Amino acid sequence: MKSAPVTVRQDTVALPTYLHAAPDKNPMFLEKRVYQGSAGSVYPLPFIDRIAEAPVLKEWQAIHLENEFLYVMILPEIGGRIHRMLDKTNGYDVIYYQPVIKPALVGLAGPWISGGIEFNWPQHHRPSTFMATVAEIVKDADGSVTVWLSEHDPMTRMKGMHGVCLRPRRSVLEVKVRVYNRTADVQTFLWWANVATEVNENYQSFFPADATFVADHAKRAMSTFPLCDGTYYGVDYAARAARNSRPCNDLSWYSNIPVPTSYMCMGTRQDFFGGYDHGIGAGLIHLANHHISPGKKQWTWGNHEFGYAWDRNLTDADESGVFRPYIELMAGVYTDNQPDFSYLQPGETKAWTQYWFPIRDVGPASQANLDMAVSLRVGNRTACLGVSVTAVFPASVITLLRRVDGKILATFTRDLSPAAPFTEEVALSKAYRIEEVSLTVMDSLGRVLIHHAPAALATAPTPEELAELAATEPPAPATIASADDLFFTGLHLEQYRHATRCPTLYWMEALRRDSGDARCNLALGRWHLRRGEFTSAESHLRASIARQTSRNSNPADGEVFYQLGRTLRFLQRDEEAYDAFYKGTWNQAWASSGYLALAEIDCTRHEWMTALDHLARCLRLDSEHLRARALQAIVLRRLGRNDEACVVLEASLALDPLDPWARQLAGRTWAGDTQMRLDLAFDLARSGLWAEALDVMAASAPEAHSGAAPLVCYTRAWLLERSGNSQAAIAARAAAVQACPDYCFPSRLEEIIVLEAAVAAAPQEALTPLLLGHLLYARRRHHEAIRLWETAVRLDSSNAVAWRCLGIGYFNILKKPAKARAAYEKAI
Fold first, then answer.
1. Choosing a second label site near 152 at 20 to 30 A (CA), which of 26, 277, 514, 811?
2. CA terminus-to-terminus distance, the chain
3. What is the 3-class SS of 65-134, one letter each residue?
4. Cβ atoms within 10 A of the Cβ of 132, count?
């Protein structure tokens, strides 16, 4: 097949689309909602609760990538999902191609569609899964094309991006992922690629042969794999198998699973897994470094009436009247289970790569790498060999060996390409066990492309062993004996965003027994800081420091000093904060974050050379810290070193071509929305760069449904006040009152300061206590929020949103149903 370059084009595609209703204008707190095994709170996102019953033809932005083997379509406006991946050699849709955009209310904030590849982070199904991403096309020197798609998570304000890459002469789809914690606090995240693939009675998903058991979400239940010898998801598979002649307890076959079921692969040391349609003779492979990407999962709605109902709910009938079913073959990083969260330090970037490629004719793979997937099955005096490659390999040599002495049992020379896989059934002189043979593929120069030496089939764990691996429910705080257990139980609940259990109960129980417990005081200090309760945060953090330094003035961990520095800055005590940050830098884990915080204070003092030194120290420890790099460029410009600033910005954009701050400083088009402008304004404000922050906020009008208009005005007023322009601040606050308040749900810690300043400056205005009440209620400062909402209705008794919020607070918090009913009636 003649080689062709990778082509890329942008256009629109018209797809039948079931439109969703406008979001609810009320803030949704949903504090006890369980969603995908963790907390289902949606604030500050608006919630969508209705989908149209009939489709309309809608134009969607699309980016198309194509080489001689693959065609790929990306939809930037729906989470940057990969909507289609077509194997051009046989016309097979490698992933489920969804011809209709038919959302169901499955997403965290409402709409979610099936099909394609959805990128889930920082929690499952991705808060912004139905929201637009910013796209940038990069053409690389080797002829490959990467489409970068970027967003700022609307809940945590972290930056996530994925680069969809297609290379010449390769039938491999590569996805390069970067997640960046651009905030000043530690954050938790998960990341899973949710790959849908069309299934039928002939479809089999497969894990590597060393996978002998699987787990449910949170490891609540376990099963042997592929044959389930017990009960899983309420189905007695062992009994089903006993009643049937075929192995209907084999969980790898879609046809065998009657109910909605997840299972996650446990313990494999291999890098691949996938699925295969035996009827068509085609499938897909996922490949990634298993040390970083251990997560391998299948999900199905189930091959029964309930599953068929969901098939109808998520797609329309094809030309044959079939509502095509699918399963999800999901790949996760830094975890092998859901909902499992890992940590991102302030300023930390994590990056990794995932690969998918089609296979043909060879059946489920026994081994795979980026060049090929091979299958090897040994029967009674026969061996079935299969090789499906991802590039053209002329005159390749495929060899079956006896491992004990290296004797060649069979050898073949073939021209291999993605369009021409190799399959062969070999007759053997005797029966061999799988571990007695190996398969090697070499190229025409004798280089080994893959070597597969199967291990003996592992023994599945016993029911008793599985029971020991399953997770258990944490006991009540008072029944836990050790302070160690209390601390780590609270940490687990916080890290995994538990929906109904509060971590502070465990830490407070530890402090009841020992008021100076260093770890629990640090945890509670951090918890109060995240709620904006700065005085309480300082008290706990200083208690932690007192214990940690009671015998050793230099603790091993500098976090407590770093968090104290952040707290003191919110309390406008920068001199003390400077000392705390510096002490935190004595420990390398917190040095990078601490030096950036020091540089920000240096900038407020116009001590540019000192700031530059601190930024250099920060970047020596974390060279990809994009906020530090942007501030470094600003400081260099202040010192008249413009050429050096340009070099810094170009290097930043090479790391992340869609970093908004670097693009803004480099004079490129803005890559973000108004909420991102607010993030950047607060970044600049921490460094005392008031004029620059005001310029960022003045650049464009807020988007529809963004809720940003009042916040932009209030933030401008605060910035103007800080820069000494009180008259202009009054005008900005007046503009805030006139701005549309729909969907205005403030959520940042800095917005507590901004809104408190607005309340103090104009106590007669009803909007500011309303908005501040939303923010505090979302931070679970319920009683303060209720008092603010009461102030809002006293100042404006016609405010339906405030009355509705009071109804929630009176009922859920004050336990006063009659008062709640009266508030709801006034809202109506």
1. 26
2. 68
3. EECCCEEEEEECCCCCEEEEEEECCCCEECCCCCCCECCEEEECCEEECCCCEEEECCCCCCCCCCCCCE
4. 17
CB burial class (10 A; 0-12, 13-18, 19+) of residue 412?
middle
The tokens 């810290």 sit on which residue?
625
Give residue-wise pLDDT tens across range 20-58.
Answer: 999 989 999 999 999 988 999 999 999 999 999 999 999
| pTM check: above 0.85 | yes
Local confidence band at 700 (pLDDT 50, 70, 90 cut-offs): confident
The average confidence (pLDDT) of the chain is 96
Q: Supply 131's token pair.
A: 């929201």
C-alpha distance from residue 543 to each of 72, 188, 525, 546 (Å): 56, 25, 9, 5
Rounded average pLDDT over 727-741: 95
Sequence-ordered alpha helix ranges (H) in 762-816: 767-778, 782-795, 800-812
Q: What are phi and psi of 616, to 5 degrees?
A: -65, -40
Q: What is the pLDDT of residue 246?
A: 76
Identify the weakest region by mean pLDDT among 21-25, 284-288, 559-563, 742-746.
Answer: 21-25
Report, in this order, helix, strand and coil percent for the chain, each rounded to 5. 35, 25, 40
Q: Is the N-terminal amide bond of 260 cis, ω within 30° of 0?
A: no
Output the six-digit token pair for 3: 């080689």
Mean pLDDT of 409-437: 96
CA atoms within 13 A on the CB side of 246: 6
- Residue 164 in contact with residue 82, Cβ under 8 Å? yes
Q: Residue 363 pLDDT > 80, yes or no?
A: yes
pLDDT at 297 over 80: yes
Query: 3-class SS at 603?
Result: helix
| Cα dihedral sign, 413-415-419-420 | negative
Q: How far apart are CA 546 and CA 559, in angstroms?
A: 14
DSSP 3-state of 717: helix
DSSP 418: T
Tally: H helices and E strands in the chain: 23, 36
Please give the backbone phi and psi of residue 593, each rounded to the nearest 5 degrees, phi first.
-65, -40
Taking residue 722's Cβ as centre, other Cβ atoms within 10 Å add up to 14
Q: Which residues are within 8 A (CB) of 726 and not within 5 positions of it... i.e. 6 or more apart?
A: 720
